[in-house]
Amino acid sequence: MTANKHKIKSSDRRVALLALCATGGLGLLAPLAMAEQAQTAASGTRQPAAPSTPAQATATPPGSSDTVTIAQGAPRPVGVNVNVSDQDLLSAPQNTNDWLLYGRTYDNQRFSPLTAIKTSNVKSLTPVAIIQTGVANSFEDSPIEVNGVLFIATPDDHVQAYDATSGKELWAYTPELNFSDLCCGHQSRGVAVAYGKVFLATLDARLIALDAATGKPVWESHPAEGLPDATHYSFTMAPQVYDGVVIIGSSGAEYPTRGFVAGFNAETGKKTWLFHTTAEPGQPGGDTWSGKSWEKGGGSVWNTPAIDPANGLVLFAEGNPNPDNQGEARQGANAYTDSIVALHVKDGTLAWWYQEVAHDLWDYDAAGPVVLLDAKDNGQLVPAAAEAGKEGQVFIVNRKNGQLIRKSEPFVMQSSTMGTVPGDKPVLIYPGAQGGNEWSPEAFSPATRYLYVTGTNQAWKYEAHPAGVKTADNEKELGLGLVLGSVLEPVTDPHPSGTIPPTGTLSAVDVDTGHIAWQYKADLPMVGGVLATAGDLVFCGEMDGSFDAFDAHSGRKLWSFNLGAGVQAPPISYAVDGVQYVAVAAGGNSANGNPEINARLGKQYGDAVAIFALPHE
Length: 617
Fold this sequence. Notes:
mainly beta; Methanol Dehydrogenase, Chain A; 5-stranded mixed β-sheet; globular
């Protein structure tokens, strides 16, 4: 992932609801005031001191002082049962109404079996509520819906609960976040809900459990536990929950860290197991790192793992090694970075890994969620795992042993310069560090057997320097403690030789052949994720604010609604009292997005979650 350093702080919130009766588009949703410092200070939320320049920032490790968490506003206890059991989670495929897990089911397929909204009537889809969360920033949340209650995580880790049909606020929680280095943006991709609790993985590397009915804190993990340097770690993923354990993975590989995935006891918050994402000597893959480079070799885990209960596995995609674009000091393939990794879910020990990109020098980290499905291998359906990579292809492996079944056709353009080792002269490569599929969740439809994937076509300029050498371009990064080893930046001007204008794709990939069945081409990169439904629909957002519905078989666009700010979050669908709803966040373009693209759009950040349904007959 590309790097920007951020000082984390809490901000106050307000909520507004817009009841909408007509179809069509909204104008730009004006961001509400982010924070009123006097009010925030009066509420007891500490504001970290702002350094005069980023390079002069002094980091306070999380846990070095007492942590106080404060819920904002008067909670309205949830009046329905939101106590989700292990059996409820295991039975999620049979639960046609709720969206209980990040990917709806443990396989991360993001497929809704609901059929009320379908190709023949989607043109009548209408917003019934727009929730304005009061936190205006790039918004990547995938909500959880339980028995008519919508649980949302905003940028800066605000957690809010709403009536999933009307958008009425139920309760809100605002954490106090400690100072931490952070890449890449103030993001939270969601929460997990189970055992009467809401689990939040925070930007300052804590795991917090809230009472699901009231939003009141129950426990929090100690960030220093298991973190050799807590300052450089952060959590941006939505946690996964299985068999009494909350599973999270660390971000921070743009800094000299050693990434991990860990399991925590859901009742106490105590760590039960930990797996490091770089292989050390004596472990499988330990010989793929030169010297002691594995000790701070990176390996972020950006997105929610899938669970295979039948085989007792937890499967996730892992990101780039460190230094990101300079490899002399970490010679070798650098296991387990840029890989699909499977662990034994009971104890976090390694089952297998498949490396998509060995010795990554281009920031091609595997950042999307792993999707579990069955795929044909020599004519036979076998249990498989798929991940759409940043280098622009879908990797499908055997779920039991990690052996590659196939790579798909490229779903974005690939330059002839791919694989070029960055040197002292700039080289243009596409896809670059923010394409083809960055972190966006894929969706799989058992009806079409297509995996639906968003993509980005964009050239990046790569130029490497010996480790530790300062140049006019990279001095700022080195001063911040980032270890990228290069200058890399997006190129949007279509005139220089070897570059392309930034555009996007939504592709339907046949998992049995690897062929692209259809592809929608957008004027701007497509980031945020996909929803597939049994109504033969695919939903996805665009940077220009459009929220679209496509025919799942043909790719024909059937409906679009403009939310006024970029839709870069994965949609969900659920039913309450027999009515099907679709919900999606709209917050503008990603925090590590391209400034030229933002200037071209002329958009501000938004803070909205939109809820859609068909008009009442």
